[in-house]
Amino acid sequence: MRILALIPARGGSKGVPRKNIKLLSGKPLIYYTSNIALQCSLLENVVVSSDDDEIIALSKNLGLEVPFKRPNDLAKDTSPTLPVILHALDFYESKGIFFDAVCLLQVTSPFRTVDFLNKAISKFIESKADSLISVQEIPHEFNPHWAFEINKNNYLKLATGEEEIIPRRQELPNAFFRDGSIYITKTSVLKEKKSLFGSKISYIKTPKEFYVNIDTIEDWSKAEELVKKYNLCVE
C-alpha cells in the first residue's frame, strides 16, 4: 500500500507563537515528528504542507519533502484539515502520482516511536478499515455513559440517550478520545466521502505517559518535562 505521510505546519499559531519551529530541548518541534516519519519504511513519501518560508526551509534541511507551498486560504486559524490533505493529494495526482492512503502526523503531538507508527500502519492495513486514529482511554468519571445534558424541561438527561444510568464503574464500556497523534485514511474516503474518518474506524492506543497535544504554554511546559523525564530528544 502506498501511503503518503503529511505533516501540516502552518506559520501562524496563537497559543504558542511559532510553535512548529520553536526549540524544544534544543530541537525544533517539527523535528520530533519528522525524525520518526523519515525512519518509517511503511511510508512512501514524507511531506510538509506549509505556508511559511522559514518552516519550509527548515523542513527541507531536516530531509522532508516540500514540493509545494500551501495557499494562504488553507493556512488560517479556521482552516479545516481535510482541504489541506486534499490539496496535497491533488498536487501529486496532477503529476501522475497516486497514493492509497494518507497518514497525517501533527507536529503538536510530537512524541511517537518508529515502532508505534509501524504498528499503527500495519493495523490499518490489516483491519481493512476506512481509517485508523490514535486514541487515549477516557477515565471512568468522564465516560459518556455517565455524562448528562439538560433537556427542554431543564432536567438532566443522559447524553447517550439511554433511559437508565449504568450504576457501577465496572459495568461501563471502554470509551476513548482521539489524541491527535496519528490519523490514517484511505484516499478514496478522503476524496469521495470528504471525510477524515469514513464509517469503519480502527484505532491504536497511544502510551499515555508520552501523551501531549501542544496548544498552550502549559502544554509546552508539559512537553519539556516529558522530554527530560523519558529522554525523548533522540538523534
Q: How does this model look, in words?
A:
The protein is of the alpha/beta class. 29% of the residues lie in helices and 20% in strands. The strands form 3 sheets. It has a 6-stranded mixed β-sheet with strand order 4-1-5-9-6-10. A hairpin with a 2-residue loop joins strand 2 and strand 3 (27-28). The protein starts with a strand and ends in a 5-residue tail after the last helix.
Query: Count of DSSP helices?
Result: 6
Low-confidence stretches: none
Fraction in beta strands: 15-25%
Indicate the multimeric state: single chain
Please estimate the helix content. 25-40%
Give the helix/strand class.
alpha/beta
Give the terminus-to-terminus CA distance: 28 Å
Key traits:
235 residues; alpha/beta; six-stranded mixed sheet; two-stranded antiparallel sheet; globular
In short:
This protein has 235 residues and is α/β, with parallel strands linked by helices. Helices cover 29% and strands 20% of the residues.
Strand-helix topology:
Layout: E1 3-8, E2 23-24, E3 27-28, H1 29-39, E4 45-49, H2 53-61, H3 81-94, E5 101-104, H4 114-127, E6 131-137, E7 148-150, E8 156-158, E9 176-186, H5 187-192, E10 201-205, H6 217-230
Parallel strand pairs: 1-4, 1-5, 6-10
Antiparallel strand pairs: 2-3, 5-9, 6-9, 7-8
